[in-house]
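Hi there,

I know you've been waiting on this one. I reran it after we fixed the sequence typo, so this is the corrected version. Both the input and the resulting structure follow.
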Amino acid sequence: MKLTCAAVDFSEETLLFARQFGATHLMVPLGLFMDERQRGPVRRPELLKAKKRVEAYGLRIGVGLLPQAVGTQHWNIRLGRPERKQEIVDVCQSIEIVGGEGIPVVEYVFNLAAVFGSERRPVARGGAMTRTFDYDQAKQAPAEPEFAASEEEVWERITYFLEQVVPVAEKAGVKLACHHDDPPVPTLRGETRVLGSVEGMKRLIETVPSEANGLNFCQGTVAEMGVDVIETIRYFGSRGKIHHVHFRDVKGAVPCFHETFIDDGDVDMLEAMRAYKEVGYTGTMMLDHTPIVVGDTPWGHRGRAFALGYMKALMKVEGVLEE
């Protein structure tokens, strides 16, 4: 497996941090290579420049993340607006460019409210600041009128996206990795969220059957669903549908949960690593979120260093670490 770190920029500090703590691959936001609004297609010269800089530090770009925020590249696709026709063109061009540069995975989300309702509180081990979620509080927020849609309307939008994009990804040699809804609740700010359950994840991969259509398996989000995480890894992994992994843990599940240190949640992380090995997963695996520890930076360098070391140790124990 490929120990992977998120890169918010391509500064020497960021690249040295990733390399010094053992990462071999990076997840990079593709919005960095779009216009100032993170719209339009990826600009190949800017991506190529970043790729060369990353490789100069002994790293590779393993995953490109499509923009997620309000108004960015595939926002109108998620809303089902007429403007989605041009956005599909932009997404497809981006995938072709990314694939042309040998980047194997493109991650995306298909929700609108993102992680709304989450708060940081000192509830992780030793009072470390970490993300918490209480659905009873979050669902009291006023609805966004433009978010209103039925479940089948949302599935029509997902189907439209997949039918247009999956064939392009196949030709480009790119695997699509959909991050399921986090938090995995049925509604949030008036949005109908259909990808917050194992059933929704199954329907996604079955909507357009293809080796290119798969998941960013966010293990923390699956744990938030209150299901058997190990068996869920086995189900999707045995079908070749895990294209990228967010390796983190939580305590609790919907309606209330909080993120934990990688060794302090409800899931046996060694057993999880063994399950990925069992299904033959060899792709990118990154730490995702982590508590902010004493003396840390806003990005969480100390917390991330701990998680990277823990992940590397698990990979070495299981003999799956790609170095």
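Quick highlight: The mean pLDDT is 97.

Best,
R. S.
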